[in-house]
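Here is the promised in-class demo. Please do not try to memorize the tokens; focus on the logic of going from shape to residues.
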């Protein structure tokens, strides 16, 4: 059952509260006007923060440790004590980020203690995290399929096939109703990546499994009409044979396309889908573009790619070294070295932004597909810049002299903005202020999809449930729907 945070009782009223939060001037300032990667550019993101926030972070901070105390307070959404003088507007934002997102705690069911573990043949290759997701997802899918008498499921973005295999090889995990266990399903496993499908088939061909229950299809899903013929053929000529469409961590727009395929195909009666990678959402005005619901469209919700990125934050992993106690001096020393290395790489990445506007370099896209660079690209910014520009293929058309001029500019930037805890602090404050908005963003996306489904006449029932423990796997909001 959809659980809303206090004091909301209706999804619409809750959507309005989310919309006014993400449309608020401070949300826009933090996600549109400023970005930590612009720290050394003329955009001067630090100076766009409210003046009293700048002063509070700057004041009496003589070291990164002191500043870290304030940032920790921001990350834990203002629960710290002894933080005198925190601006009221910052306190209000922290309070909003703590109280407005959808509740994410998994409520353990009683019968689950008796739930049967997955058999060894199915567990092959799965991490503990994946096993938990797949087992809980199975319970939800089986509840729906057995209630509606469905025997087939289309798994979108099936990846290595963990979910497909689980659904095809196991029966209901609940032992409280042993008289009517849900039967296993026949699967159509679809993925855009042939490597993933090949991996899935390799696991599926183990002697103890039954590969015939799974049909594999390499196909890129690009909209609600995708794979319609293949699905129809696979469902078979008997029009009464109906099925489910499912997706576990269907990246970005793939979740919207899965929803669209569910609505478009009259024989797909059930939907179970979990989203992830919100930075890959489709933006614009067409089908499957955020926001998809009339409610959020009417409320004029729109946001930047920075806001979408915030949606994929996992608040439990913000603390550097969180969750592991130091065991020896050697461990502490190595951890400190890793932190220093990470800080230096971030400093260099921020320096790269102004360098990219050098007149000799070709223009680059707004979202830079840089990825990680070899550790040999440190320790100087010159070596980092050379490595990054080469990877981005920006030096190919430059003469040797022009390349050297660009690298001289890199030396100059490194000298002007020498690595220093104050720069580091400012960059991290900006980064953290955006990260704290993640819960609002993810809740807005989940509610938008929920409301979109609610708006469709052919949809009988919609639910949004917490599928498993956030601490183990943070993308845990499961959207479930049924058609008449
Ligand atoms: C995050 S993985 C999840 C895999 C699997 N469902 C699981 O939970 O283990 C997402 C999968 O979706 C696939 N994928 C991404 N975009 C796709 C698209 N447009 N069409 C089909 N598959 C896609 C990727 O290749 C990847 O295997």
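The designed amino acids, position by position:
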């Amino acid at each position: 059952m959809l659980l809303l945070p206090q004091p909301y009782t209706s999804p619409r009223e809750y959507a309005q509260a989310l919309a006014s939060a993400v449309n608020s001037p401070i949300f826009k300032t933090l996600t549109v006007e400023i970005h930590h990667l612009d720290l050394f550019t003329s955009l001067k993101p630090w100076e766009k923060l409210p003046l009293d926030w700048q002063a509070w972070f700057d004041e009496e901070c003589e070291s990164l440790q002191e500043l870290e105390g304030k940032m920790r307070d921001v990350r834990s959404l203002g629960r710290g004590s002894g933080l005198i003088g925190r601006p009221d507007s910052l306190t209000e934002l922290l309070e909003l980020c703590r109280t407005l997102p959808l509740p994410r705690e998994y409520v353990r069911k009683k019968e689950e203690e008796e739930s049967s573990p997955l058999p060894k043949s199915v567990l092959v290759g799965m991490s503990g995290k994946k096993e938990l997701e797949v087992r809980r997802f199975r319970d939800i899918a089986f509840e729906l399929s057995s209630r509606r008498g469905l025997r087939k499921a289309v798994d979108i973005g099936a990846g290595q096939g963990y979910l497909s295999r689980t659904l095809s090889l196991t029966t209901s995990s609940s032992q409280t109703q042993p008289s009517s266990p849900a039967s296993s399903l026949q699967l159509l496993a679809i993925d855009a990546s042939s490597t993933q499908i090949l991996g899935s088939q390799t696991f599926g061909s183990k002697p103890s499994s039954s590969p015939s229950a799974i049909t594999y299809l390499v196909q890129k899903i690009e909209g609600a009409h995708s794979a319609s013929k293949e699905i129809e053929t696979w469902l078979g000529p008997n029009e009464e044979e109906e099925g489910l469409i499912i997706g576990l961590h269907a990246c970005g727009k793939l979740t919207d396309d899965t929803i669209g395929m569910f609505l478009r195909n009259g024989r797909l009666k059930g939907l179970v889908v979990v989203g992830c990678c919100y930075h890959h959402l489709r933006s614009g005005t067409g089908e499957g573009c955020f926001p998809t619901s009339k409610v959020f469209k009417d409320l004029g919700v729109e946001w930047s790619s920075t806001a979408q990125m915030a949606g994929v934050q996992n608040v439990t992993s913000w603390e550097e070294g969180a969750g592991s106690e130091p065991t020896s001096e050697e461990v502490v020393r190595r951890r400190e070295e890793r932190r220093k290395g990470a800080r230096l790489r971030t400093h260099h990445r921020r320096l790269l932004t102004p360098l990219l506007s050098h007149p000799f370099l070709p223009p680059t896209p707004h979202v830079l597909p840089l990825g990680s660079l070899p550790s040999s690209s440190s320790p100087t910014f010159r070596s980092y810049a050379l490595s990054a520009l080469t990877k981005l293929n920006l030096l190919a058309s430059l003469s040797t002299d022009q390349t050297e001029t660009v690298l001289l500019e890199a030396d100059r930037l490194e000298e002007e903005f020498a690595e220093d805890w104050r720069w580091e602090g400012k960059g991290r404050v900006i980064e953290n202020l955006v990260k704290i908005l993640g819960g609002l963003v993810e809740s807005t996306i989940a509610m938008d999809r929920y409301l979109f489904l609610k708006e469709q006449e052919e949809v009988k029932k919609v639910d949004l449930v917490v599928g498993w423990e956030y601490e183990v796997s943070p993308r845990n909001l499961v959207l479930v729907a049924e058609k008449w």
